[in-house]
Amino acid sequence: MQTYDLEAEGLRGLNSALQAQTAETNQTSWEIVNPRGSHAVAVGLDAPIEVTVKGSTGYYTAGMNKQATIHVEGSAGPGVAENMMSGIVVIDGDASQYAGATGHGGTLVIKGNASSRCGISMKGIDIVVHGNVGHMSAFMAQSGNLVVCGDAGDALGDSIYEARLFVRGSVKSLGADCIEKEMRPEHIEILRDLLEKGGCDAKPEEFKRYGSARQLYNFKIDNAY
Amino acid sequence: MAVKDIKQDGPPRTVPIQSATFSNPINAEIRRAAATGIYDIRGGGAKRKVPHFDDLLFLGASMSRYPLEGYRERCDTSVTLGTRFAKKPITLDIPVTIAGMSFGALSGRAKEALGRGASEAGTSTTTGDGGMTPEERGHSKTLVYQYLPSRYGMNPDDLRKADAIEVVVGQGAKPGGGGMLLGQKISDRVADMRNLPKGIDQRSACRHPDWTGPDDLEIKILELREITAWEKPIYVKVGGTRPYYDTALAVKAGADVVVLDGMQGGTAATQDVFIEHVGLPTLACIRPAVQALQDLGVHREVQLIVSGGIRTGADVAKAMALGADAVAIGTAALIALGDNDPKWEAEYQALGTTTGAYDDWHEGRDPAGITTQDPELQMRLDPVDAGRRLRNYLKVMTLEAQTIARACGHNSLHNLEPEDLCALTMEAAAMARVPLAGTEWWPGKPGTGF
């Protein structure tokens, strides 16, 4: 276990050390203490290492992550796991705006609530939120899965493309071109797997599925707002 | 031209007069809108006449200035970008760069040609919406990677392969608007790079998904620097709207370079009404941006790249005299490759247009094979020949700018200054803040009461 005191040793040294790890590294387990809401913690990693952050973080935690498993034992600021490519990011607390924005792959688990625009423009990432998500979540979501075990705010899935949205609780309103869709057996299986990966004991049958009506895919004047 | 009297039978009557307000082109557009219900989409930049570099003149050497000998005496053209924070600034041989244009909007062969021409001339190219292609990286000695709101194709590996990163806030053709790539140009490869189904209209968001203002941008730039080990120069590109404040805020957010794009700057596709009615002419943008840099004490430390309607070495020299460190070209580069070439006139006619006016780049039917993904059309462009034409054009622009600089007594393009210029019109004098020709005055000059 490598322990890094972020307050004492600084951000550049931390990210430099973590980014230097490769698939062959022996330093596979890292603990970051005193994060104190720092921004850009553990960004740009590209190795199968495990990083535990002992506290809450600021903006863009685990940004553009590849391969690494990053666990924040606290809450995370805006843009956690933005543009993640692969790996796993787990937030024990809440996540602020834009969680998982534009993520291409990997899994983001938020054990608390996520604020607005969770999964905005997601491109393949899987996001599992144990609590609620705020307004405009999954805006222009292209692909991947967003699982919300609580409620969703206004305009869920506005202008959505091919991403799948699963919500167990209420949806305050659906955004443009987002509709409720049939939950077929294959979706139950996908969701069961996501819930298991996300450490959530909810039953897939309790969820509704939402996705694109595909009416905005090609411009039609009658669809304009 | 004298208007001949119309022979009339009977008493004199008024001749038909076309309305300046409801002109034939305007009326045609009203009829087109009424028939289709869709606004006009096109490529390119503003076509309306606006105050531009043509409205400025260089004064040249005289009794009070000492000229340098053309071709013989040194006149430096190189520029270094990213000296503020980046560990690895980039140095270009010439101050004319290639603006961001996407694979998707352009064919792969056109992107290759841009890379070849720019590299041979010693300058950089820039990616666009859709990400970085291996061909583009391979043929561009210096490649700037755009970080756009859509984040199509964005990944940390390509970010690290880039020589610089350009955070795009806006562009001159459509400040405040997103982009679009219509379904007819979405080939399998383009669709795959953008994680979207083939054949659908792809929208590029008008604002970034994970930051909303300059305070957020400062943290975003920190993240990008941390991911790339603080090596890469980071540009911030803005459309010309509020150049003083946008430049100041970009500096505050930590930019190494500010890219300022006026309304003549082109786009692959957007609404005509947007192109023609939103934003400022390039000429009106430069002095406020330079003023912001000077007020913050970072002029030359934070470099300024100006784009939008740059066509000649004279334009390059004028932009630099007003305080730019470099310029970027897009439309002009495409013309050098072969866009709107008269040899395709018959095909332009078949598309309902003519040479020089073809702007339906979004339709993917470009006879020149540049703004298309059609497999047959794009083969019309030979990337080696087209690259050579671009190199030649860049060299000519540089020689022209050097000729002017030497005539003004400067041994570097960067020594050009506003005092080398005068303006032909009141509007240009006010925008460029240089004297109206033959006077010592310009509108708004401090202390003049205007």
Describe the structure concisely for a colleague.
The complex is a heterodimer of chains A (225) and B (450). Chain A is an alpha/beta fold and 225 residues long.
Low-pLDDT residue intervals, each spanning 5 or more residues of chain A: none
CATH-level-4 superfamily name of chain A: Glutamate synthase, alpha subunit, C-terminal domain
Taken together, the total number of domains of chain A comes to 1
State Rg of chain B. Answer: 23 Å
General shape of chain A: elongated
Shape of chain B: globular
User: Under CATH, the topology of chain B is which?
Assistant: TIM Barrel
Got a strand count of chain B?
Answer: 16
Please bin the fraction of helical residues of chain B.
25-40%
Q: Within the CATH hierarchy, at the fold level, what is the topology of chain A?
A: Pectate Lyase C-like
Which architecture name of chain B does CATH use?
A: Alpha-Beta Barrel
How many structurally independent domains of chain B? Answer: 1
Uncertain runs of chain B with pLDDT below 50, 5 residues or more?
Answer: none
Widest sheet: strand ordering of chain B: 5-15-14-12-11-8-7-6
- Main beta sheet of chain A: strand number and arrangement? 11 strands, mixed
| Structural class assignment of chain A | alpha/beta
